[in-house]
Amino acid sequence: MVSDVTAPVNRPRRRLRGAERRSRIEAAAVVTFARRGYDATSLGEVATAAGVTRTVMYDHFPDKRALFLHVIATQHELMLGEIASGITSDGGPRERVRATLASYLRFTHEHPEARRLLLDPIPSGDPELDAVIRGFLEDRSRAISSLLATDLANAGVDLESTSLPVMVAVVSGAADGLAQWWALHPEAPFDDVVDAAARLLWNGLPRAGDP
């Protein structure tokens, strides 16, 4: 009698391409650094999370510091790209304010670990690395200032005064606070959150007697 049960076949595991391995390492590093901080994270933990060996890790990054600097720079560029896409979108200034908030909130919602790594990091214990992170925040402010300069100048803002950096700081802080609030209240409808925030940024706080 011939059995109709097919014996299992041990197929070789597909070998990951170099770019795919690197992508896995970077994704695992963002999550691990954000949750545990730089000082408490080991390359072994990142390798395990990425599903690669430490040897493979060293093929792509010589040490933990290089990996950390790479991932925060990469996530910083991604975040700036989302902000820029909103500021430079079609429509008038009011529509672009809403588009910018929407783009930023989507980024923080889809990449919560990146948001924490960039905006609410666990102190690294390394003054130089902490200074790098502060530098990224300053770069973000300069980029937003540059992108907003034309609209603000058209509105009569003196770009050489302290008004520009103050406005950028207020808008950036409001957006960061909103992202943190929405992370705690994900049940709030996205469009309602964006509309309320955009209305506040555009009109200011409601005053007695306003409709």
Automatic annotation (TrEMBL):
Residues 19-79 form the HTH tetR-type domain. Pfam families: TetR_C_46 (PF21943), TetR_N (PF00440). The keyword Iron-sulfur does not apply. Signal peptide: none annotated. One of its GO terms (molecular function) is DNA-binding transcription factor activity. Residues 42-61 bind DNA. Residues 1-20 are annotated as: Disordered. Gene3D superfamilies: Tetracycline Repressor, domain 2. It comes from the Bacteria. Keywords: DNA-binding, Transcription, Transcription regulation. This is TetR family transcriptional regulator. It comes from Nocardioides silvaticus.
